[in-house]
Amino acid sequence: MLCRRIIPCLDCDLAFPDGRVVKGIEFKQIKYAGIPWQLAAKYYEDGADEIVFLDITASKDKRETMFHVIEKTSENVFVPLTVGGGIRSVQDARKVFNAGADKVSINTAAIKNPIIVNKLARYFGSQACVVAIDAKRRYVKDAEGKTVIKTIQGTCWFECSIYGGRTFTGIDAIRWAIEVEKRGAGEILLTSMDRDGGKDGYDIPLTEAVSERVRIPVIASGGCGVLAHIHEVFQRTKVSAALAASIFHYETHSIKEVKEFLAERNQRIR
Amino acid sequence: MGNVKSVYNALKFLGATPTIVDTPSKVDGDKIIIPGVGAFGEGMNKLRRFIPKLERSLDSGIPLLGICLGLEVFFEVSEESPNVDGWRLMGGRVEKIRTALRLPHIGWNSIEIKKKTCPLFKDVKEGYVYFIHSYHAVPDEDVIVATTQHGCEITAGVWKSNIYGTQFHPEKSGILGLKILKNFLEV
Predict the structure, then answer these.
(1) In Å, how far is A188's CA from the nearest CA of chain B?
(2) What is the structure's pLDDT at A26?
(3) SS3 track for chain B
(4) In which band, very low, low, confident or very high, does the pLDDT at B1 lie, cut at 50, 70 and 90?
(5) Do the chains contact at A49 and B107, CB–CB below 8 Å?
(6) If you average pLDDT over residues A97-102, what whole number do you get?
(7) Which residue of A has its CA nearest to B38?
(8) Residue A208 pLDDT greater than 50, yes or no
(9) Is A100 within 8 Å of B6 when comparing Cβ atoms?
């Protein structure tokens, strides 16, 4: 039986020589947390099941810094490494893999040009192709053609956002998840924009809706503030993994503590 | 074939001096590893020109380790690419995992060691390793050394004389994976 995975996410600002890990709140305010490869090595030693780097600068002239960060990290970290942010083509993905990444995560490029999902799956295999979905609740009584979900706060559909939360697309996140699975995505990294940085827990209705409709693994993201939030998303949805950032970066909890907490509650973890 | 850099880094970390080769004439060394992610057909087609050289190395007793797709190519044929011939080092087929659970089979799963005499698992206690695949080998000879469960039994490791294979990624399986790679280096 598979274990559920605990994945620390490092949002990287590459406007510095070695990069900096930062943490946004609802995709906006920014705080600094450390040097990417140093934090990654610490999390690996502490039992992280995977590491995710997101290049939030995603500008072409800073790409070399990202390759340097990936290379440095992969020398000492022997768990899977996923890299996202600014990957627009098969060539971009190949450079990231050559630097030492195991998977790439794409959002904007996939929405603007969905065939890239098929291409990545064909060239590198589905297992290397993660599609990231940044979803925001839209409360409406009647949304034609959208997948409407009932939540405590009201009935809503979920809208996909691109460019790091700056642009909304009108695309239904749940339908998009089903489509990228068909196109060959190997995993979905599902972030709730409403919950991101809020520390109020994962968006359970969103996570449940997506993880029940696709067969590929789903990674829940956005909103983890305490250990119980990870337990909650594992208990109430079919997600394969939980991603968190700030609880690890600011040493609210270590990965070891998360795992002990979950093990005490009979969750299967490594 | 796939991300060789991860394997390279793990070997260096263990104190070995790996070389990544892109032409058959450069295949040289006292151990050979075929890492692999990607599809069977593409992988096999890229591997094909290396095969005569690799077979001479195998005949001279050099140990070979195939990882993930690198293991799958040892067999006769794969459901993933039915028109492409496998290497046929081992008898049997590569089949899509027949399970009601999620696919790809991604994440940390426990291995059951079936043949404790296999040098890869020397001093290895059963534990969790990292898998990421949708296909697995169904051998028709007695080569399975480890298995895992994902709604069905999955072949996790194979061994036949100096040919070793792991369906999981030892280079991505933390300390336990490094130990398995180290065991291969010491074969």
Answers:
(1) 12
(2) 63
(3) CCCHHHHHHHHHHCCCCCCCCCCHHHCCCCCEEECCCCCHHHHHHHHHHHHHHHHHHHHCCCCEEEECHHHHCCCCEECCCCCCCCCCCCCEEEEECCCCCCCCEEEEEECEECCCCCHHHCCCCCCEEEEEECEEEEECCCCEEEEEECCCEEEEEEEECCEEEECCCHHHCHHHHHHHHHHHHCC
(4) very low
(5) yes
(6) 90
(7) A125
(8) yes
(9) yes
Judged against a pLDDT cut of 90, whether residue A197 lies above it is answered with no
Closest chain B residue by Cα to residue A187: B104
**B81 and B39 Cβ atoms separated by less than 8 Å:** yes
Interface contact A127-B37, CB threshold 8 A? yes
Mean pLDDT computed over every residue of chain A: 92
Does this model's pTM top 0.90? My answer is yes
Looking at residue A149, which CATH number applies to its domain? Answer: 3.20.20.70
A24 falls in which pLDDT band (50, 70, 90)?
low
Q: Which domain holds residue A193?
A: 5-264
Catalytically annotated residues of A = 11, 134
Task: Classify residue A270: in a domain, yes or no.
Answer: no
- Distance between CA atoms of residues A262 and A123, nearest Å: 37
Q: Where residue A30 falls among pLDDT bands split at 50, 70, 90?
A: confident
Residue A269 in domain? no
Chain A residues within an 8 Å CB radius of B156: none
User: A142: burial class by Cβ within 10 Å (0-12, 13-18, 19+)?
Assistant: exposed
CATH class as words, domain B4-185: alpha beta
Chain B hits for A79, CB-CB cut-off 8 Å, are 130, 172-174
In whole angstroms, give the CA distance from residue A100 to residue A71.
6
Closest CA to A19 of A11, A29, A27, A7: A11
Q: ipTM of the assembly?
A: 0.91
Distances (CA, A) of B66 to A74, B20, B108, B163, B168: 21, 15, 19, 8, 10
Give pLDDT tens digits for A110-150. 999 999 999 999 888 888 999 999 999 999 877 888 999 99
Question: What is the dihedral angle through the alpha carbons of A203, A208, A209, A215, rounded to the nearest 10 degrees?
Answer: 130
With beta carbons under 8 A apart, name residues in chain A contacting B41: none
Q: Is the pLDDT of residue B37 over 70?
A: no
The string of DSSP codes covering A93-105 is: HHHHHHHT-SEEE
Q: Is residue A242 situated within a structural domain?
A: yes
For the question of residue B68 being annotated catalytic, the response is yes
Quote the number of domains for chain A: 1
Which residue does chain A place closest to B179, by CA atoms? Answer: A78
- Residue A240 belongs to a domain: yes
